[in-house]
Structure prediction request, 1032 residues.
Amino acid sequence: MSTIVVNKEYRDRQKRKDALISLFIGFFALLWIFPLVWTLYSSLRPYVDLEANGVFSFPEHLNLQNYFDAIRRMNLPLYFTNTAIITIPAVVLTLFLGSLMAFVVSRYSFKANVALLLFFTAGNLLPGQLIFIPLFKMYLAIGDAVGDRRFLYDSHWGIILIHVAFQMGFATFVLSSYMKTIPKEISESAMIDGASVFTHYFNIILPLLRPALASLTVLMTTWIYNDFFWALVLTSSDSKRPITSALGRLTGEYVTDYNLLAAGAMIAALPTLIVFFVLRKQFVAGLTLGSTKG
Amino acid sequence: MSVEQNGVSRRTLIKGAALGGIGIAGGATVLSSCGSKASGPMSFGARTVDESPTKQLKGLVAAYEKKSGNKVTYNATESNAFQNNLSQYLQGTPDDAFQWMAGYRMQFFAEQGLLADLSDVWKDLDSQYDNSYKIASTGLDGKQYFVPQSWYPWGLHYRKSMVKELGLDPENIATFDDMLKMFDAMKKKGLVGFAAGDKGGWEAMGTFDIINARLNGYQFHVDLLAGREKWTDQRVIDVFKQWELLLPYTNKNVLDLEWDGAMQLLLQKKAGSTLMGSWFGGNFKEKSQEDYDDLWIVPFPEINPEHGVDTIDAPIDGFCVAANGANVEVGKDFIKFAGDKEGMQAMLDTGIPMTSANKNQDTSTYDAFQKQQLNVMSQAKYITQFLDRDTRPDFAGPVVGPAIQSWYKNPKDVNKIVDSLQAQWEALPEL
Amino acid sequence: MNSTAANKDTSKVSRRRAFSPQDRLTLGAFIGVPTALHLLLVWIPAIATIGLSFTYWTGIHISDIKWAGFANYHNIFFSTPVFWSALKDNVIWLAWFGLIATPLGVLLAYQIDRQIRGHAFFQTAYYIPVVLSLAVTGIIWNFMLRPDGFINGILGKDITNPISFFGDDRWNLYVILVMASWRHIGYIMLLYLAGLKAVDPALREAAALDGATEWETFRKIILPTMRPVNIIVLVITIIESLRAFDIVYIIYGTSGAQVPILGTLVFQNISGEGQSMKGAAYATILFILSIGPIIAYLRQSFKEDVK
Prediction:
């Protein structure tokens, strides 16, 4: 009896405390997204309006004119296509190769497993600038060797490969952690049934990885989509650059019309926001980081 | 091989290569120019994405395509990105012809064999340019690697209407004291007298250049940038002391503004003047013709009567041909057209303000502001490019830029700053 | 923990068994392709850069490479005062992330994991900045902090005399740190949330029944259970603080003397026209500083795997 009373009291107290915590975190959450909301709001106002009446004036006009202007000037279809050509294969390849590595190191006992895992994860943490000069030289040399300078340099494949090489470490790490949570009986019965390594991976493990792959898709898409460094140093043709550099152009160009810039920024932010919202539910569920749940 | 290299160590030569510090042996052997007509597709690299210059360059490209029948691909890159990436660009898959700057920034890449020799193009263009342009287009080996397009003077910009309101004569800001008097009057009206921005780290180099040239003269300035004088020299300290006199009239957030921030202050009539290159006329015009007509430039006023207003920073922009381009011959053909009066005219015909480098250009279509730029230019005897074009690139950007920024933060540190500048110059590796 | 260890024993097919030649080939390819790619594109260039840091070179002709010994390092340590300012800024950065941003992210994750009211919205709101690209982040914060931006506007400052958020030494590093935290906190929150869902809710309930306070539960139950994730979060905090670059680059460009950090020094010296192998030396210093935490982290994972 008495424990139930204590329990109820405790619950009530906790409820009040939680309400307070919610309020507090909620306040900061609003503060957190305020800069974004303000930019969104500004993007809907014509600059002349602001200029004439000040930033805090009541908006006389709210319209999408800045968006139309930005779309017209930014040459969006081209840059969005480039981004898709880079991001989609890069994410798919990263997840594929990462899952292969993770599969082997978590399902088979080899002496080199741990070392391999370490080597990959360490590579993922290196700063990009550490490798860019030799990488650039290597891309050119490979290009010259196959008789086409644009084989890797100034080519979407060159950008895709460096993203894959870099991000694989993180994918391997997360996927191998996740695989440890998959009951090994599944693997054992597969092997007793005489399934080949390939079948084991492709028909049994891969389908079970779906939640983890969903979360990694969000993270990898965000990282690769948002990269501007590799796209800048490894291309010379503007027609091959992704949307992030197009936004850079807008920044350089319209020094006086900030609201147009805001519209451009919102457009460029849209794809990653969409990916995030679509996969939001699976996002946290699929991430596993060396956690201890059996 | 040029004669200068005899008996001079490579290090002194390179360090001494700042513009004006070199005597160019002009004795290129005269060969009859190549008879075959260059044809085929080519690509042109623009280092700007701004609306106005893009329109101008596309005018040039269209005129060339029409004349030659060669197809030109236009490849634009934002200017900061272009500069940061130039070395890779030139080594990799560059456009055949591209937009670049004269002076050290061209000479360095010419020396590395990344630019095509344009001596034969210059044979045709020679008569159309003053010798100073040819010198600015010449590499350390005495060959030409650059064809000028336009230039813009660095001077004191202000709005005529605002100066008139103060009861001063806008045409007559001749000495440093006149200028301070003007600033005083502006300050009393609650305005910023001398708007400045240096967030990018290069903007204020123009102020250093001009005060040094006014105070200590052209020769000292050139020698300093070439390493023949020391940064710890009292004369350099004096430059900063003189500069300090402007600080009470300068906005407090210099390191928060890029060049366009300073321009905005002038555009919105919050500031009375700013020291900058005259490239931003287009921004005024975008706002209104009235604002553009109000814009004016005079030479930075005299400080030391011995030197008067004899020097000016007037960077030359123009074109180079990449040695690694796919079609060097067509690139040269294009650049010859661009440097010719005809190509220049095609750019001017787009209606975008530009001061042509070609001496045969018809300037009758120039508006008042452009004519004033010519006037300002003609008052100068010596032309410098700009600090970051007149000295080693690994010194200007990484060392001088931050040094000036730290001076803005604390002008009292001037001695420490010049000590550090000199130490870092001496620590530079041989090229 | 016990059950985990028990699971681990069978988690791998530990019996030695003969693989068919085809299986051996498959396994070889599964490991070989990713490893070769990673080695070729990441580690070999990284080691090459370390080698180049002992040379003079403009990065153009291979034949121009000249041995410099420790000259680049000597130059950095003794003739480049900005290096020490950068080091100091990186240390402040680390302290800020380590003592403020990361703990806030962890705390947020903890509360959101308890499913307090509005947790789904909170999770989204705090995570959104992480998915925005850098250029977008730069534009957004410019809207806040420009001379005619939101904050100066709300304080009633005229554009001739605004607060100089990015220009004034007294606070510009902290302005940058707030911007960086805007993204970092959401990222840490996400990682920690991912770890927290592995903690058995029964543990927490039991602690509550025993009358443990929230703080005690967190400290005595959650933190120890989360050890592996703690290590990951700690390493990410250290690495991100050391190799910070993006946010400073987007605000200041390559000049970056106002908030000097090692990442900008590398970029400034290794790219552009001023390219020299001093940049490679900076990169190597950065590498040596980061390799410590990386090794610590790896040893932790190693222990995990051996168990």
Q: What stands out?
A: Chain B touches chain C through 53 residues (CB under 8 Å). The mean pLDDT of chain B is 87.
